[in-house]
Amino acid sequence: MTDTPAVQSVETEDEYIHVRFRDPNEFDTIRTPDWAANAAQDVSSGAEVRTGKREDSDDWVVQSVLIKKQAGEEKARDEAKRILEKIES
């Protein structure tokens, strides 16, 4: 297990606050799987998780977490970190 990545950026877009942990250019494929959103619901209702798979790996890791905009950026950052730790631990 690798160390938990730090937040790279936090951007508010449309109805979500996009908390990015890894550069999307690192990945061959990025998806928003239902299982990850289901895991995130315990932390933040309506959250979505984008996972990525690198070309040389079979592992999927969290690329970014989208938190509903009304949470605010500070809370979104904290909730996204908790979701990342929950999924990748």
Describe the structure.
The chain is of the alpha+beta class. The chain has one domain (9-88). Helices cover 26% and strands 31% of the residues. It contains 2 helices and 5 strands, in the order E-E-E-H-E-E-H. It has helices at 34-40, 73-88; strands at 9-13, 16-20, 29-31, 48-53, 60-68. Strands 1-2-5-4-3 form a 5-stranded antiparallel β-sheet, covered by helices on one side. The longest helix is centred in the C-terminal third of the chain and has 16 residues, at 73-88. It is globular and about 35 Å long. The mean pLDDT is 94.
Topology at a glance:
Elements: E1 9-13, E2 16-20, E3 29-31, H1 34-40, E4 48-53, E5 60-68, H2 73-88
Antiparallel strand pairs: 1-2, 2-5, 3-4, 4-5
